[in-house]
Design goal:
The chain is α+β, with helices and mostly antiparallel strands. The protein folds into 2 domains: about 1-175 and about 185-215, Aminohydrolase, N-terminal nucleophile (Ntn) domain (Glutamine Phosphoribosylpyrophosphate, subunit 1, domain 1, 4-Layer Sandwich), CATH 3.60.20; about 225-375 and about 440-640, HUPs (Rossmann fold, 3-Layer(aba) Sandwich). The chain contains 28 helices and 17 strands. The chain is globular and about 70 Å long.
């Protein structure tokens, strides 16, 4: 796991200074650079040594004659098979790394090389012979890659803060991205909060040759359902594939462990680890997050302890009582993009504890909910289909009455009423509107109150368009299938995988996600929806696959998420700072928000008239982000060195 950056010039140019020091945390073990002899490209690299810790793993790395170069972030899990094949064809290797496979695979297959890869990656190949640069990102978007096209050159980097330091891109905010952020709590698709910085999409590639740019997608999630297997056989097949996948991802020359929440997903991963290595010491890191009923918390730690006891794991418990006011600016700098999910706090602190213990690689359970339909939103899709015979005006009338009663009594600020009200609204909507409601964390009325007119007027098609087009593009049979396709392309890469990458790399830890191995992802696309929730049990096929490894109460647990007590933080630790910030001159002078709407929202937070906690958190996070990335061009706050 590493940090990469570079410049591709439209015309031969003198070398540019690239500020790679901002990515040092991604690779503290080594650094390197390459400059094309004809002034057409330069590549920069920061290394976190995972496989072949010797200097032979130095990057940028070339082929035998020094004509093809690569900078690569990630892991190629099938590199051994590819290496054997390439050696048979006469290619000579100087290291034991997976990185070196890429330059030789390029020589053999060119752009088609990505079709052969199973891994998590973002890389740039530079071919001196043809003057072509080829950039690619893994199928699921596990590893990040950001680009800026200035007209004279194309810049790329693992993190936007490196691009900002180059002084080639401004810090202007994209108003569409801002509107999306206050809708979803993150920015989906290729946009970022900066007007001029874009993401290379998951499963995407980009070619640059003589200033001519081509791009496309090399992979998509195929949901061609396979009906000829009974549920029990599917469970056995998932188990076998999970064992193969975890086995591939245990390859490392540094200490390796796992994150363990006590839920099904992470527990299945450590269960597979133990099944593969009955006698190995396995260290698992678990969080004790203090919450309360207002935030809908369920204590995960007792379940994690039961899993650890059953599998004989070396369990490390991290009691999370962070000084959130001091920690938040540091986390926002590391995440680069504003992410209004407080789960980043627990993720960062667990990775930090692992690094302190000398654990450099962690396996995570991310991705299972998208593959096996584990979110409440999947259940909502199924419930909506069962209510298809109830007249929608009747459901909408019941919803309106419930909303009115909730506003009068203030119960909407509590977890269970919140979810019940959301479900009533959902059932009353037309099918197309349900997609938007599942993704929306606020309401159009609230955003219109908060946002300045030029942002509030942005058409809904610009905000939601990707979601609706992805839903239509999916080849899934059911609405549940199609919704999971949308999640796989939006929520997962834009939020979950982004914060997983940033919070782990912030402390120089590699986070691996076995559920997103191509073998498991492509297999999951073939499993019918009714098998995934067989007998009414969410993620039944995965629970059955892991049944022999786990306590029964863990196999059947409801989804709880990786949360944090934001309502308590906003009403105690951050109350004064948050209110002063969001009603302060610096925030309002940006010209993006209306003071009256913000003040009304903050009053609602106190009275509970509307449940606005996540939107308040989003605005507060945005302003702290803007003070670093707009006002200071991404310069690190003092807390980063703490």
């Amino acid at each position: 796991m590493c940090g990469i950056s570079g410049v591709l010039f439209r015309h031969p140019s003198e070398p540019l200074r690239v500020e790679d020091e901002r990515q040092r945390h991604r690779g503290p073990d080594d650094a390197g650079q390459y400059r094309d002899p004809f002034g057409r490209a330069q590549l920069h690299f920061r290394r976190l040594a995972i496989i072949d810790l010797s200097c032979a793993g130095h990057q940028p790395m070339s082929n035998e004659d020094g004509k093809v170069w690569v900078v690569f972030n990630g892991e190629i899990y099938n590199f051994r098979e590819l290496r054997t094949e390439l050696e048979r064809k006469g290619h000579a290797f100087r290291s034991r790394t997976d990185s070196e496979v890429l330059v030789h695979l390029w020589e053999e297959d060119g752009r088609r090389m990505v079709d052969r890869l199973n891994g998590m990656f973002a890389f740039c190949i530079w071919d001196e012979r043809t003057g072509e640069a080829f950039l690619a990102r893994d199928h699921a978007g596990i590893k990040p890659l950001y680009i800026v096209d200035t007209g004279d050159a194309l810049f790329f980097a693992s993190e936007p803060k490196t691009l900002l330091a180059s002084q080639v891109v401004g810090s202007e905010i994209d108003p569409i991205a801002l509107r999306q952020y206050l809708t979803f709590l993150w920015v989906p698709g290729e946009r970022t909060m900066w007007r001029d910085i874009r993401k290379l999409p998951e499963g995407g590639w980009l070619s640059w040759r003589g200033g001519q740019r081509e791009s496309g997608r090399w992979w998509d999630w195929d949901q061609s359902i396979q009906d000829d297997m009974p549920p029990d056989e599917w469970a056995r097949s998932v188990r076998a594939t999970l064992l193969e996948t975890v086995g591939r991802q245990l390859v490392a020359d540094v200490p390796l462990g796992a994150l363990l929440s006590g839920g099904l997903d992470s527990s299945a991963i450590v269960g597979a680890m133990r099944a593969l290595h009955p006698d190995r010491s396995i260290r698992a890191y678990s969080a004790n997050v203090e919450g309360d009923a207002q935030d809908g918390f369920i204590d995960d730690l007792p379940f994690a302890r039961r899993v650890a006891a059953r599998l004989h794991l070396d369990m490390v418990e991290e009691r999370l009582r962070p000084s959130i006011a001091a920690l938040l600016p540091r986390l926002i700098w590391h995440t680069d993009e504003p992410l209004a999910d407080p789960a980043i706090v627990a993720s960062f602190l667990l990775c930090q504890r692992a690094r302190e213990h000398g654990t450099i690689v962690l396996l995570s359970g991310q991705g299972a909910d998208e593959l096996y339909y584990g979110y409440r939103s999947h259940r909502a899709m199924r419930v909506a289909q069962s209510f298809s015979g109830v007249p929608s005006p009747l459901v909408r009338a019941a919803s309106a009455l419930a909303q009115l009663a909730a506003g009068v009594t203030g119960v909407s600020a509590r977890a269970m009423p919140r979810r019940a009200l959301k479900m009533l609204r959902f059932l009353g909507d037309a099918p197309a509107q349900r997609i938007l409601q599942l993704a929306d964390w606020g309401s159009t009325d609230l955003r219109d109150e908060l946002l300045a007119p030029h942002v509030a007027r942005i058409p809904a098609s610009d905000v939601y368009g990707d979601y609706l087009s992805l839903f239509d593009r999916s080849r899934g049979r059911t609405d549940e299938d199609r919704w999971s396709y949308v999640l796989f392309k939006t929520f997962m890469p834009a939020l979950n995988l982004t914060y997983g990458d940033r919070t782990s790399m912030a402390v120089s830890v590699e986070l691996r996600v076995p559920f997103l191995d191509r073998a498991l992802v492509e297999q999951a696309g073939r499993i019918p929806a009714h098998v995934k929730h067989f007998k009414g049990e969410q993620k039944w096929v995965l629970a059955q696959a892991a049944a022999d490894w786990l306590p029964p109460e863990v196999r059947t647990r409801a989804k709880t998420g990786f949360g944090a007590p934001i309502r308590r933080w906003l009403s105690t630790d951050l109350r004064t700072e948050m209110r002063d910030t969001l009603l302060g001159d610096q925030f309002l002078a940006r010209g993006l928000f209306q003071r009256a709407g913000v003040a009304r929202m903050l009053d609602d937070l106190v009275t509970g008239r509307r449940d606005v906690a996540y939107i308040v958190w989003a605005l507060f996070t945005f302003e702290l982000w803007a003070r670093t990335f707009v006002d200071r061009d991404g310069a690190a706050p003092a807390t980063v060195a703490a």
